[in-house]
Amino acid sequence: MAGISDERELAIHPIVMESVQHNAKTISNIRSLTASLFGVVAGTLGLESYPGFIFYLVGSLTVSLLIYLFRTQGKPSAYFHRPLAELWGGEVFGGLMSFVLTWTLFYGLVRA
Amino acid sequence: MGFTSNLFNLVGLVLLGHAVYSAHEHSSQNPLHLPSSPPSFSPLTTPTSTTSLPTDIVLETLFSVLLISTGIVLGSSSLRPIQWSKWAGQLEREERVKKSVKEIREGTGNPYRILEERPGFVDVRGKRKEFMEWVRKGDDLAAK
Questions:
Q1: What is the DSSP code (8-state) at residue A15?
Q2: What angle do CA B46, B48, B53 make, to 5 degrees?
Q3: Is residue A5 assigned to a domain?
Q4: Closest by alpha carbon to A110, among B24, B79, B91?
Q5: How many angstroms separate the CA atoms of A3 and A9, rounded?
Q6: A27 is a domain residue
Q7: Which end of chain A, N or C, is surrounded by fewer C-beta atoms within 10 Å?
Q8: How far is CA A36 from the centre of its chain?
Q9: How far is Cα A29 from Cα A111, in angstroms, rounded to an integer?
């Protein structure tokens, strides 16, 4: 039943795929930039193992909050089809590799 | 928005660079693992590197990263509403305000521009009259 009501909702309020792609690309850009930045910070602070990953998750949550405040003006459902998946959790693990890269790099540089 | 985000990014990068340099200097001044120190102490007494960093460097780093992320978020391109009605309404309002040179350059303007900017209907009767005059002129020339 939920699927039928979803379809009806989409038929009444159609969704612009271009905008969805544009928003996803914007989020992905922000995530990849900030992931490297968090890696720099985690390496500089000398975080190791789990605290580093927890720092990354906390930082991603902060960035999501910033996007929520400044970009969606508190109405994420107007810009994302599923706000929980696309705004709060979108692309979080896509930036993990660049985070680890800069994390290890700056850890090695700072505390060599 | 652009100026604010650039300012945030610049100040944040300067602070981050200073913090990283300070951390590097600090770690080179007080090395954690001296090569001369015997590796006999237990892992429990190993000084964790986080506590060894001075508080002001930690605070400066965290503040700078907050500043840069705010700058990045402010500098990112604005999101577009996904609901067709709101999106089209926003486009209409934007086009009314400015003739959206940027949107045209990006190729993501109003998809109904073809319909809205088409020429008016062709005056069929006027065209027919013109054509008849042209034919008559040709007949006159042939008669002469």
A1: B
A2: 135
A3: no
A4: B24
A5: 10
A6: yes
A7: N
A8: 13
A9: 30
Q: Please give the interface size between A and B, counted as residue pairs whose CB atoms are below 8 Å apart.
A: 109
Q: What share of chain A is helix, strand, coil (3-state, %, to 5)?
A: 75, 0, 25
* Cross-chain Cβ contact A13/B84 below 8 Å: yes
Number of structural domains (chain A) is 1
Q: Closest CB to B76: pick one of A26, A44, A106.
A: A26
DSSP-based three-state secondary structure for A66: helix
Using a CB–CB cutoff of 8 Å, tell me whether B13 touches chain A: no
User: What is the domain range of residue A23?
Assistant: 16-110
- DSSP-derived letter for residue B91 is H
pLDDT tens per residue across all 144 residues of chain B: 678 888 888 888 899 889 888 888 888 877 665 544 444 444 444 444 444 777 888 888 889 989 898 888 888 777 777 777 777 777 777 766 665 455 545 555 666 666 666 667 777 888 899 999 999 998 888 887
Residue A92 domain flag: yes
Could you give the C-alpha distances from B32 to A27, A44, A45, B15, B95, in angstroms and in order? 39, 14, 14, 24, 62
